[in-house]
Structure formats: structure tokens, C-alpha cells
Amino acid sequence: MKRKGFQQVITLFSVMAIFSDFPDIEAVRVASxxxxxxxxxxxxxxxxxxxxxxQHVATxxxxxxxxxxxxxxxxxxxxxxxxxxxxxxRPVPLNSNSLGPGVPVAGATSGNPSLTAGSGYLNSRxxxxxxxxxxxxxxxxxxxxxxxxxxxxxxxxxxxATAELRRNPALSAPDECARACREGEPxxxxxxxxxxxxxxxxxAACQVCTPNATNTVWSHCQCVLADGVERGILTANRMIxxxxxxxxxxxKVVIDVENHMEGMEVTIxxxxxxxxxxxxxxxxxxxxxxxxQQGNTFRYQWTGNAGTHFWHxxxxxxxxxGLYGSxxxxxxxxxxxxxxxxxxxxxxxxxxxxxxxHEDAAERYPGRLAVNTGQDPESMLINGKGQxxxxxxxxxxxxxLEIFTITPGRRYRFRMINxxxxxxxxxxxxEGHGMTVIATDGEPVHPVDVNTIISFSGERYxxxxxxxxxxxxxxxxxxxxxxxxxxxxxxxxxxxxxxxPYQPASAPPTYDVGIPQGVILNPLDAICDxxxxxxxxxxxxxxxxxxxCV
Length: 550
Description:
Elements: H1 2-32, H2 34-45, E1 77-79, E2 92-93, H3 161-167, E3 171-172, H4 174-177, E4 189-200, E5 232-236, E6 245-248, E7 252-259, E8 268-271, E9 296-303, E10 307-313, E11 324-330, E12 350-356, E13 379-382, E14 403-406, E15 411-418, E16 426-430, E17 435-440, E18 443-450, E19 452-455, E20 460-466, E21 473-480, E22 490-497, E23 520-521, E24 535-536
Parallel strand pairs: 3-4, 4-7, 6-11, 12-15, 14-22, 19-23, 23-24
Antiparallel strand pairs: 1-2, 1-9, 4-5, 7-9, 8-10, 10-11, 12-13, 15-20, 16-19, 16-21, 17-18, 17-20, 21-22
């Protein structure tokens, strides 16, 4: 019996040894097939690239696509959907047919494309300088490619922003680009990765964490609170607002937009960016590009003009469902004629206001006849936060409000962005504090002092707040006017002094009994042909820069 048991043990170990040899055998087989591929990759890596950042200079290139997970379609799409890339583990380039020179359109895969700048298909490093290539193994001379065999790129870590930043040392992370801008500083290449998908307010992530900051460049929590009413939404990186792009003037901005919205196409418009020399990335569907289909990735790249801007979806009603975010292009103080009026220009002092429905926007268009009629928003958000009182039950949600923190005696530049999708005017007033308007729509103006700002969709106003009141907390009131006044739609936020209380001492303002308006910028009565003590018209604003006629 003992002898038989001993033989069984010997047999078991023999079988294990045989199977343990299989990886070595497979490794030998794979290694024997690698020299040709390595030589091919090494040769391709030395091929000069036609780059958008190199003034669109077309240079000769190999007719074989780069074997690299970092595929840069300077003027085109990157195919990532596994069902459309069977047998091709890396992104499948689409053909180079176009609406014009360099304008990408969807189409079939080109078998032998011309890899030159301006075509619909470029090599894997066509949008970045040579210094942004993959690291090379100094012993073998081959390009190091993390996990190059995964066919499910959109489910794999290699499509994340972190992975791209690790592979390309020339790229700067979003938080590195959100910096103080200095004269003479070399520009950076700022990389962002937007993953667009269906999501929900008060989802499972909110049981684990709640976001402690807004207008951030990274997604920290993936909990979307909105105004506390649960609904389905569309998000970029599971954030509302989406990731904030904050860079310096002359920085090169690269954004990979990956569409995971089932059955929906999308484009992203960069509202306020002039797109000089990069007009193909303006994000207008069927004009500057074909929409990004589900499972596809499109690379936007541009150099932004200084000012306060924002990005939003430009297809269907997606903007109203949550696809929007801020864009701030700062410049050195020496180039800002109003820089002497403020002490701080913080990344957290962006006030992005938006209208908000409690159901998918498509449910309200063209409209209902009986229940929840019309397209007027039920609520509003300030930086994706707010509370809502049900007019039928009186129930009030208890989600947190946005809080802006300031220090006594200091002057702060705030950047207000109106991301409304409706035609409602938006009125913003701050309790106990005036606002010195110093810029509008990205352009500096001669400063004017007001107490209330009325804005419309797409408008941006930069203003300075002086922290000259007793330490405490003060209400910020956003009211919807016009059609939004029918539902009494409003939202609140808090201006808090450091080391002071988080809750204002006064009662929350209501729609009918609000914060005193004082001097209004952009009044709705349009009486602008005379000087007024109670209002300043937009037509009265004057550019702070000298305008030269050519």
C-alpha cells in the first residue's frame, strides 16, 4: 500500500513537471518569431513623423502602420471597438477619405495608407514631437510597449490617461498644466483622456465617498451628487462637470475622447477656442468632423487663446444631460492688463452654472401634453452641485452646496461660465459682496463694479471679489429668469471665509425674496442709450487691450 502511494506521488510530480515546461516551450517559440518584428519596430521608431505641432510639415514615412498602443490620428479616428477590430489587437485606423484636406470621416480600413500629415491616417506618433516616443530597451533596441496584445483597449488600463503619461514623458499631466503661468516658460503638451458613458446621479460610488472638490482635473470619487434627485446622466470620467482643462497660453492641448455611450455618437466643441490652424478640431458634427461613433476614440488637439472658455457635447441633447466642463487658458501677469486688480486666480474659483432636468433631456423633446410639459428646467446646478425642493411635496434634498473659500483681505479672480442649454437668462448675486468685472468671453475689459450679473448660454464673465467683510459665510444666489421664472428655478452656493463657519448666519434666500440686486450688469430691459445708476449694459464695456487696425 505504501509503495502504491509512493508511485502515485511520483506520477503526480512528473505530470506537474511536464506542464511547467509548457511556458518555456511557448517562450522559445515566441522568441524565435520576434527578431523580424523587432527589426521592423526599431526601423519604424526611427521614421520621421509629420506632426501637428511641427507646423503640419509632411514627411516621408513607412507605409506600414506603427505597432503601438499609443496611436495618434492627428486628423482622424482611432477604432477601439473589439467587434470592429477582430484579429487586430491594436487600434484600427480608418481610411483617409475626407471632407477636405485633413478632415476625418468614418470609413473602412485602408490597407496601405499614406502616413503623412494632413491625411486621415497618421503614424502612431504623428501628433507628438520625437521626444514623446516610447522608451527604448537599451539592450535589445526595441520599443517598450505595455500590454500591446489586449484587443479590449477600452476596457484595459492602457487606454487611461495615466498609462499614456507613463509611456510618453514629454506629456504633462492635467494637474501639472494647471499652474501659475510665467513669462518665458516653455510651453507644455497637456494630455487629457475623456471617457464618455452612461452614468447615474447618487450611484453606488456615493455609498463609498463623496467628492470634496469640483472643477478638478482628475476624477477622485466617481460620485455624482447633482441636486440630490436620482436620474440617468451622461458623464466624462464620471464627473459633472467633466474634467477641467486648465493650461497656460501657448500650451499644446491633446484630448482623447473615448465614446462608450451605447448607440450614441458624439462630438466635443471647445467653446471660445479660436482654433487657428486647428479648425478640424472645432467639434461641429458633419462640418469639421464626423461624429465619434460608439467604441471609437477621437483625438482633439489645439493651442488655446487666453481666457475663460468651456467644452460641451455638440450632438443631440447631450450637453443638457451632463457633458460639459470648463476650459481656462491663463497667461503671465505681464500680459493681463487687469492682473493688478487681484491677488489670486485659483483653479477652484471657477463658477460653472447649468440648467438641470430630472429626466433624460430626450424625454422632454418635443414635449408632453399632460405630465411635466414644456422644456423648462426643474433645477439648476453650480459646479454640478445643489439642492432641490419639490414644489408638490415641499421635500428638500440635503446634498451639499458648492463652497468657495477666500481669505480676509485678499482679492480673488472668479471665472463664471454659463453652460445653460435652455434660453433662460441666469442671474448671479453674492450676499454682501460686489463684483468687479474684468473680462467677458475671454477678452479683458476695463473694470466695472456691479452687484449682479445676468448672463445667457455660452457667456463667460470674469470678476474680482474682495474679501473685505466680517469673517463668515455668505450666500451666492443663482436665479433663472424668463421661462425659468415660471418654475421659480434657483440654486445656492456659499462664499466662505477661511476659518469661518460653513453655514451662513442669514436665512437662505428664496426666489421671490432674494439677495438685493444692486447694480446689474446686462439688464433685461435693454435701456442702454443713456447712463444709468442701477445698471450697466454689455455694450458699455470697453476692451482693455489696444486694438490695432491693419
